[in-house]
C-alpha cells in the first residue's frame, strides 16, 4: 500500500514509518522540512503539489501538531490548536478533492480528550469528555478544547469515499531517544521516578508494537469508523507506573515530588504540570470488542521489553508477545 503520513517526522511517525516500511509498504511523509528519502514538502495548512501524493494513496495517517510538551503560554496554546485544526482541515480538503481518494483516513487525536478521573475508566461508549470536571485547574480545559476541535475537523470533512477514524491515543511508549519512555526512564534512573503530587493519577499508555498493530487493524477493518481509544487495557496509578519503571532499571529509590516541586520541575523543563497530574484512565473498549489482542496488555512486561530494547539499542525487535 501507499501510506501517507502528514507530520510523520516526530516520535509516533518514526515508530509507524519504521514498522510500515519494514512490512513492505511505500511510506510518504509530509513535512515542513523535507530532507530524507520519502519526505515531501507541505506547509500543514494549504493545498499544494503534495496533494498528488494523497491522490491514489491507500491510507492517510495525519499526525501533524505542535508538541504539547511546552509551557501553556497563549502563543503556544494557539500554535497547538492551529497546527492541529488547520492540518486536519487541509488533509480533509485534499482527500475530498482527490480523483482516487484513500480508502481510510486515520486522524490522530488524544486520550486527553477525556475527563480527569479516578473512579472508573473511560471507554468510547461511556467515557466522559473533559473540560467541565470539578476540582481541576481551569486551564486544563484548553487541551480538551484542542482535542475536540481537532476531531471536529475530521468529522465535518466531506470525504464521502474515505472511511474516517480518530485515534484517541494514550502515550506511545517506544525505546527511541527523546521519546516519552526515554525521558521517564532517565528520571527513574537518576532517582527521581517517585510519585508526583501523590501519584494516584492514572497513566494510560500503549506499547509501540501494539500501537502499530492497532493502526494496521484499523486500516483493515472496514466496519470501524469514528473515535477509537488506543491504550493498553490496564492503565495504572502513576505511583505504580513509576515503581514498575524503576524496577526494570533496577533503581531502588524514587524521590516523591509534591505538586509545587512538579511546578518547578515542569517550569525548568519548559513543560506543563497537566502532563504529569491529569488522571488519564482510558481503556480500549472498541478495539477489544472488535477482537484486537494486545501483545503487551500489562505495564511491567511492556516496560521490561522497552528497557531491554533501549539497553540493546535495538529499536525494532520485541521479545515474544505475552
Ligand atoms: N507521542 C505520543 O505518545 C502521543 C500520544 C497521543 C497523541 N499524540 C499526538 O500525535 C501526534 C504525533 O505525536 P508525536 O509525539 O510524534 O509528536 P512530535 O514528535 O512533536 O511530531 C509532530 C509532528 O507534527 C509536525 N508539526 C509540528 N508543528 C506543525 C505545524 N505547525 N504545522 C504542521 N506540522 C507541524 C512536525 O513535523 P515537521 O516539523 O517535520 O513539519 C512533527 O514531526 C501529535 O499531534 C501528538 O499530539 C502523541
From TrEMBL:
Domain NAD-dependent epimerase/dehydratase residues, every copy: 3-221
Residue ranges of every copy of the DUF1731 domain listed in the record: 273-305
InterPro entries found in the cross-reference section: DUF1731, Epimerase_deHydtase, NAD(P)-bd_dom_sf, SDR39U1
Ranges annotated as spanning the membrane: none
Entry's family note: Belongs to the NAD(P)-dependent epimerase/dehydratase family. SDR39U1 subfamily.
Protein name as annotated: TIGR01777 family oxidoreductase
Organism from which the protein derives: Streptomyces pimonensis
Amino acid at each position: 500500500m501507499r501510506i501517507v503520513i502528514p507530520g510523520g517526522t516526530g516520535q509516533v511517525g518514526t515508530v509507524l514509518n519504521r514498522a510500515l516500511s519494514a512490512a513492505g509498504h511505500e511510506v510518504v511523509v509530509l513535512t515542513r522540512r523535507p530532507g530524507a528519502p520519502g519526505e515531501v514538502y507541505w506547509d500543514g495548512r494549504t493545498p499544494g503539489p503534495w496533494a498528488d501524493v494523497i491522490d491514489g494513496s491507500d491510507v492517510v495517517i495525519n499526525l501533524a501538531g505542535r508538541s504539547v510538551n511546552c509551557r501553556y503560554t497563549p502563543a503556544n496554546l494557539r500554535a497547538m490548536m492551529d497546527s492541529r485544526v488547520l492540518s486536519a482541515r487541509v488533509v480533509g480538503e485534499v482527500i475530498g478533492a482527490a480523483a482516487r481518494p484513500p480508502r481510510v483516513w486515520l486522524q490522530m487525536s488524544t486520550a486527553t480528550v477525556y475527563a480527569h478521573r479516578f473512579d472508573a475508566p473511560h471507554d468510547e461508549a461511556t467515557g466522559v469528555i473533559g473540560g467541565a470536571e470539578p476540582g481541576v485547574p481551569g486551564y486544563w480545559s484548553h487541551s480538551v478544547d484542542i482535542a475536540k476541535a481537532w476531531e471536529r475537523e475530521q468529522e465535518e470533512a466531506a470525504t464521502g469515499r474515505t472511511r474516517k477514524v480518530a485515534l484517541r491515543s494514550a502515550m506511545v511508549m517506544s525505546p527511541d531517544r527523546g521519546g516519552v519512555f526515554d525521558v521517564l526512564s532517565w528520571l527513574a534512573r537518576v532517582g527521581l521516578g517517585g510519585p508526583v503530587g501523590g501519584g494516584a493519577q492514572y497513566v494510560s499508555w500503549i506499547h509501540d508494537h501494539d500501537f502499530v498493530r492497532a493502526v494496521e487493524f484499523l486500516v483493515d477493518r472496514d466496519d470501524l469508523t469514528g473515535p477509537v481509544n488506543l491504550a493498553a487495557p490496564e492503565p495504572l496509578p502513576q505511583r505504580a507506573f513509576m515503581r514498575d519503571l524503576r524496577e526494570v532499571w533496577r533503581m531502588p529509590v524514587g524521590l516523591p515530588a509534591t505538586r509545587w516541586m512538579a511546578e518547578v520541575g515542569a517550569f525548568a523543563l519548559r513543560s506543563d504540570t497537566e502532563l504529569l497530574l491529569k488522571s488519564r484512565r482510558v481503556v480500549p473498549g472498541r478495539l477489544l470488542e472488535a477482537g484486537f489482542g494486545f501483545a503487551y496488555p500489562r505495564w511491567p512486561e511492556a516496560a521490561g521489553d522497552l528497557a531491554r530494547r533501549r539497553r540493546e539499542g535495538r529499536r525494532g525487535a520485541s521479545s515474544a508477545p505475552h
